[in-house]
Structure prediction request, 593 residues.
Amino acid sequence: MDKLLKKRNPVNTFILVVSILIFSYYVFVSIWPIFFNIYMSLSKTDLMTGWTFVGFKNYLSIFKDPLFLKSLLHNFIYLVVMVSVGIGSSLIIAALIYKTSGFAKKAYIFMFFAPVVTSLVAVSLIWKLLYYPNVGIFAKIISNVLHLAPPLFLADPKTALISIIVMDIWKDTGLRTIILHAGMEEIPESIYDASKIDGATAITNFFRVTIPLLRPQIIFLAAVYSINALRVFTQVYMMTGNPPGGPAHSTQVLVLRMYQEAFYATKFGKGAAIAMVVFILLLGMVILEVKSFQQRWEY
Amino acid sequence: MGILKNGKIMRKRRRLNKYMFIRTMPNVGVHILLIIGSFLMILPFMWMIISSFKPNLDIISVDFRLFSPNWTLDNYKKVISEMPLGRSYFNSLVIATTVTVSTVFSSSAAGFLFSKLKFWGRDALFFLVLGSVMIPPQIVLIPLYLMVSRLHLVNSYPGLIIPFLINAFGVFLMRQFIYGIPTELIEAARVDGASDWKIYFRVILPLVKPAIAVVGILTFLWTYDEFLWPLVVVNKTEMMTLPLVLGRYAMAEGGVVAGASMATTTLVLIPILIVYAFFQRYFVKGISMTGMKG
Prediction:
């Protein structure tokens, strides 16, 4: 008995309290809701009058719904453009900033990062006016300086989605640039010296040395922005007017569809089914990310 | 003869200049490109501020003029009298501050827990935090809304705050940072008889101040900017946050509310831009740190 008492450590209250808090919080805001969401996606309910179990009917109906399929396509376009053009442009800017030094470097980083800290809601409103058809500032610049017929931007179903993506790429340019730039500064100078002896030019250096060595950062950014592209909502809601997702549903996206099905049409089951689709896509994306990270260690 | 000599020197000098030009040209090109880029980054904000002092018809008009002769404060007067701005500022501030304080403490405590302490189920718990990244509030929006409405927390501060109290990103960043603190320091405190609570408050917290600044600033900004969740749980004017006030303009035709909306965005963005100007290095450092994490 004595031995047992001696061996027993006093309970560490810090570990106990913090881990229980974390555990219960995540059960409360993530685990329970996701299971409840699964249950909800199999039901038909408006939260007020009734709640009936309908099996996979919601899923069948969303996959027959052209609006949902359109949203899926739009999210996919968003993802591809955001990741490729977004990371590509930031790579170039990061390489340019890498060449500068001192005050100039600080000033550039300061300016490029400014849109990142500002509010997306506010920035969307500003860009909506910049995009104003025919008499907005972008249209004016295109017609007066470049002497071209300006597109209608957000008012034209053909250009609306891409206009939103351009704004989004603009807003986060600084964020991606700084992450890539920090990665570039980690690359030892000696690698560049070695390749210079081998006769490499700045351009070959960029493609053969810089980009391969930035792989972890590029994968990280690709993962972050593919997840972000799936969650797009605010930009579309703010920039496409009444009802959001227009013109002619050309900017419908998944989260917006979920919001409208649930809170406009009070088809909460259908909304929950759309949420499940987003969740599964997100899960796939995260698994892909983890896999790409593991590959890195094979070097 | 003299002329010839001069010509030779001139030619030599010209050749020298040519080489110098070629050597410095790439850098000049770099700066020109970056200056254009920087200009594109801040142009929309300059345009916003200028427009907020113009009448609607001068912001969006056929004859293009950056500076209007009809300067006016009417937009601001109109916005301040018609929009519940004061109250929304207060709401946004209360919510963002609460979430920030909670996130700073929860993520530093969790970071300490996951990096320096060993206990049964630690990896499972960390996996739970990791997994929560895949379940952002947007995905569980409907069940969360149902929960909040059943708890009668619609249109209340707790309702607006609950989904954001702990932030997985903050936990990762803190864990990474606390990992770097030498374990001997913690062992020494333990030998002196300090409990883990005391170690957390007296050793860990003072040492992670830079990470606290980073997590704090980023959390504050994200919460200040949150749009979808308030849109769902708030329907009373007095509980609106600043993004919701701006959201009202989304439904109106852009040209009609141009002046008013630019005055409001200016009022919303100016505090952020001022804070940014002062704490720039924390923002940049924080972002670089997240990238390192890889």
